Amino acid sequence: MTTGATPFQHLFRRGAAEAPPLLLLHGSEMDEQAMTGFAAAVAPDTTWIAPRGQVPVGDGWAFFRRHPDRTLDTGDLALRAGHLGGFVAEAVMRHGLAWRGRLSWPASPTARSWRRRCWRCGPASPPAPS
User: How many domains does the chain have?
Assistant: First the structure.
């Protein structure tokens, strides 16, 4: 695991070349280490990149600002989404990753279990497996 010198402080772990890399995004008031245990549980042999959000919040970080009432600052979200996209593109090139331009869940049984749990809290029906 190494910490990069790009605009996003981040952790990187190289895994098996045949698996698509994971992008690990933490929640508010967390940091780049928050999702590494999840990655180890669902895809232990997979390459991953875990950036730290750039907005200080409480004792941690976030990827975008919120208003005092906790609603999204959509202008800041749009700006920072572009910055994150640029970081991902740069990291893919820097680390020589085989990015296929799509997001997917790892295929392990643990990952399928996490996917079911995550989608219970989200949209009414999960997307078709990739």
Answer: 1
List the domain range (segments joined by +) for residue 7: 2-105
pTM of the model as a whole:
0.72
Cβ contact 52:6 at 8 Å? no
> Does residue 121 belong to any structural domain of this protein?
no
Indicate the SS3 state at residue 38: helix
Tens digits of residue pLDDT in 46-79: 999 999 999 999 999 999 999 999 999 999 999 9
Does residue 44 lie within any of the structural domains? yes
In Å, what is the CA distance from 40 to each residue of 93, 109, 113? 23, 13, 14
Q: Which structure tokens are listed for 76?
A: 């800041």
Task: Decide if 129 is inside a domain.
Answer: no
